[in-house]
Amino acid sequence: MSKNVILIVPCYNEANRIDLAAFHKAPGNVRFLFVDDGSRDGTAAKIESGKPVDAALLRLPRNCGKAEAVRQGMLHVLNHPGIFPGCEMVGFWDADLATPLDEVPALEAQLLAAGRGLDAVIGSRVKKLGSKIERSWTRHILGRIFTTISDNLLNLSAYDSQCGAKIFRKDVIDKAFAEPFVSRWVFDVEVLLRLGTDRVLESPLRAWKDVRGSKINIPSASFRIIRDLWVIRRRYKK
Questions:
Q1: Which domain holds residue 64?
Q2: CB within 8 A of 151, min separation 6: which ones?
Q3: What are the tens digits of pLDDT across the range 160-206?
Q4: Which domain CATH number covers 229?
Q5: Domain total for the chain?
Q6: Could you tell me which of 86, 90, 79, 88 has the C-alpha nearest to residue 33?
Q7: Residue 172 near residue 192 (C-beta atoms within 8 A)
Q8: Rounded (10°) angle between helices 137-154 and 187-195
Q9: What's this model's pTM, rounded to 2 decimal places?
Q10: What would the 3-class secondary structure string for the chain be?
Q11: CA distance 97 to 67
């Protein structure tokens, strides 16, 4: 039986990119909390006027980065249970819908079937027969390099920790998101370290597509990402 799922959708200057009509077509048990991360381009106004009925908007006063936007959204759901009553699962999803919303039921079903045996199910961009993963060669190679480095530094054994489609049991939100993250770039690995990789399942996605307009400059971000991985290692691997 499907349970209600809340998806945190972090948004920063997405007025020209966010497709609110697609959110209206989400599975019937999915609710949304859009988190406007201090946008300066009218993102909040567009969301407020065009969001689905079963959606809410949280506005942050200044830009804090994706990690903090997701964290604030998670804590808002935890501290305001009356907003979406009856929801047992909370996740986060990229605003560009690179992962289609019709992937939600598969992740939800696996988490539901596991009961308390799992804390989270995360999407994984594995290109295989039967899937439609449209990822640029450059991003794929950089992703494999990141995975190799993070696995060696942190012993994660995750194929794709950075995929922006993750669903958690609501009762582990405090454990995973109560404390601020060390990194605003690769906070996903911190979530895995906080929960423990034996409590998380990676589930290959059937579809994923690179969407133009990413605000991350890969060359300039690379140094910060490597630096953050070392900081995370010092923080979590004492």
A1: 4-236
A2: 157, 158
A3: 999 999 999 999 999 999 999 999 889 999 999 999 999 999 999 99
A4: 3.90.550.10
A5: 1
A6: 90
A7: no
A8: 40
A9: 0.94
A10: CCCEEEEEEEECCCCCCCCHHHHHCCCCCEEEEEEEECCCCCHHHHHHHHCCCCEEEEEECCCCCHHHHHHHHHHHHHHCCCCCCCEEEEEEECCCCCCCHHHHHHHHHHHHHHHHHCCEEEEECCCCCCCEEECCHHHHHHHHHHHHHHHHHHCCCCCCCCCCEEEEEHHHHHHHHCCCCCCCCCHHHHHHHHHCHHHEEEEECCEEECCCCCCCCHHHHHHHHHHHHHHHHHHHCC
A11: 18
> Cα separation of 232 and 238, whole Å?
10
Q: Which two tokens stand for residue 35?
A: 């988190």
Q: Beta partners for 19?
A: none
* Per-residue tokens: 199: 């409590």
In this structure, what are the phi and psi dihedrals at residue 191, rounded to the nearest 5 degrees?
Answer: -60, -45
